[in-house]
């Protein structure tokens, strides 16, 4: 009797193990002769697993069975879920589903054999991107109202199966998407954009009189007012925000009056607006009036530089996206040991006017264009900032008379491409480029009218976007030897043109996600 009870227990135990194995798809079905699915293959020609938000994800698969001669049409049931036990998305072998969020998805196909009740699960990935993730974002005052324009790069295959890029314009994108909730009616000042996670970003729209709105980057919908990032939802008295710099564990907000406020964040790589900006502005010895944040790779540099026009110097604060150390937000201690004839000291540029400052590698190698007031000469100089946390030294510094001095003025617009040898600059309607290796300047093109107001590069650093004060935007190839070596680069290098944008306030590159920013990609 004892032996018989033991045998019964063992049989019941085996049945229990078998049931759990089938449900959890552990593949231990040796005791049941079922029509095992030997292989599942995605059919690329019938599937679409990389789509824009609002489009349909389609996953079509082919299956190979252990017993292909059995009924494989009505003999199986199919259920698609996003999670193992989530809501049912579809009940056919082919999934057709319109996701409601821009992110990476894992879809699970539950295949149940009717005869045995055995269910096998398979997973498939899909990427749903925002149609407005990465691209050029232009803020302008158009027809008396604030206007946001987004320009996206798209691609197709030509008859020779070569990849061809083209650009799609979304003029006045906010009003097109959200006609019932217009932007603040105060005149537009500009726009800033920054990643807040590895799947999304935000946009700040600055208006006159201190008004500001924070938009969700995936669809430009309103999230909150900028003032809500201050204690009690009130801006400091007289403070009118005009620019923002994302620093990971701390951020900086610049006002029209030259004051900078900052906040400490709880997470360096995911901004959730959980903390408020301090109610006391940053202080630099001797006082300061900050007029702009230096254009740089803050993520890699782990500090943010600013120009103080009161003392004519470069100042900055430490920050990090990876460490919440106590030095975040601390004023940089920069040491310079170079003599004036070797290098114009960025800590005291008395006698010089700073025309341009920007980084061109990993956020720690910089180029300056300065005008020597006594001689009228324009100076080109390079330098590095090397150090750790908040202590840095000027290294590898040099200066020279700029080779294109006779072509520029105090109003010339500059941009040094990152990870290439070209400095682009615009004087009036003319666009030039300077090769820092050969020290030669060449005219790229003359747009014919208007004055160039801004030049910035795209994600890959291979193209430049140019805005003019007559409401025009141009996109140009920036590093192609075939273009730059041509007699008239502009005749073959202008890729895209958009006009009628009104009074353009500024242009930014919209990364969309941290992944794109870190990898310098679309």
UniProtKB/TrEMBL annotation:
Name of one Pfam family that matches: PKD_2
Entries under PROSITE patterns matching the protein: PROKAR_LIPOPROTEIN (PS51257)
Name under which the protein is recorded: PKD-like family protein
